[in-house]
Amino acid sequence: MDIRKLITVFSDQKEELESNELSTLCDRWEEGQLSLSSKLAQVVIGVRRSGKSTLCEKVLRQHNVNFAYANFDDDRLATLTTEDFDTILDALYQLYGDFQFLFLDEMQNIDSWQLFVNRMLRQNVHLVITGSNAKLLSGELATHLTGRYNKIELFPFSFAEMARMKSVNLTSLSVKATALRKKALNEYLLEGGFPELLNESNKQGYIEALLDSIIKNDIAQRFRIRYVEVLRRLASYLMDNFCQEYSAKELSAVFGVSDHTIDNYYSYLKEAFLLIGIHKFSYKSKERILNEKVYVVDPAFVTNRAETVATANLGWRLENIVFIELLRRFRPQHKDIFYYRDRQREVDFMVVKDGSVEQLIQVSYDISSDKTRQRELNALVKASEKFHCDDLLLINMDEEEQETVKGHRIRIVPAAEWLVGQLRML
Prior knowledge:
The chain has helices at residues 3-18, 52-62, 85-96, 113-122, 140-145, 159-165, 175-191, 203-223, 228-240, 248-255, 259-271, 285-290, 300-303, 314-330, 370-387, 415-424, and strands at residues 41-45, 67-71, 101-105, 126-131, 149-153, 244-245, 275-279, 292-296, 336-341, 346-353, 356-363, 392-396, 401-405, 408-414.
């Protein structure tokens, strides 16, 4: 590509980046996971429009480092190839001077980009990279970088982040503040946490355009999908039936394609971060692999789609939000999240470290019914006895207390307070 065109594109991108007012950017939990002093590539991955670029820009600008920026999710750069890498560098050095940090946005859009990243690391350039594909750090990149990267997963705004952007009081324990947090959570259950949706009036149009971009650009084009309409329908079906167990055999009968095709399409939807799977806990690896539940990355994909049918299930929505929050909190600590089910009981979530169960969690929107309450408490107690875990938690919308069942202490906490609790510890 002609260097003059590249300089023009990168100049436009530079002006757009510098136009952002730093004081208006939301503080994100994941900022502390980026280490600019490290020689490792800092790689931020997550679904499109979750705020990856903003997070990286904020950290770089707050540290007042000299960095160059290139966004490859730009139609003007669609024809770039491996042969253009030196020209890209030439254009960036002409525009930014002798930079020490290089911020590469959606770098996976160029073939063999891993070789370029590896070259920059060998030249001691500090790299900050974003990507919208879960396989970004597998295959060739892992081979070329041989562990020389720090991975940061970013989801759309958490409830605490969204509430803070809406000026909801997250610390006061007054009746008014507690009630307003609960109101904000009920809104979050429907609206989700995509940053740009906070000020977007046409929410359905935004989400449908985002979903279309992910299906077309991140999946269909990348993987040369043969049955694109089947892929769309499968995505819609799974987003309507989130929090349920996945079965390729059942879905193949519904969509008229093979189990193999369903499994492939499901894996692509997860790679694009639209869906996230959770495995059933078992000490047998085969059982873990064969059993999986499906969650959606953000409830906005459930609410703001044409012909959606899952808007009313607040219980599933709360469970989904708790799952994503558990991933935020525990994946950086290298802890795993599972669910558990046997013939008698089901536990929504298990926090596991090195094969040891550290916490058992049930999620129920409404436990005012004694039948519901006892079902959730008894499942926790039985699982506690089976897995020798004493940290038992029941998350609901309203109640806060401690209850002892058969000698096992169980904390019952309101969801809004649990969701902002991590923030209060900062």
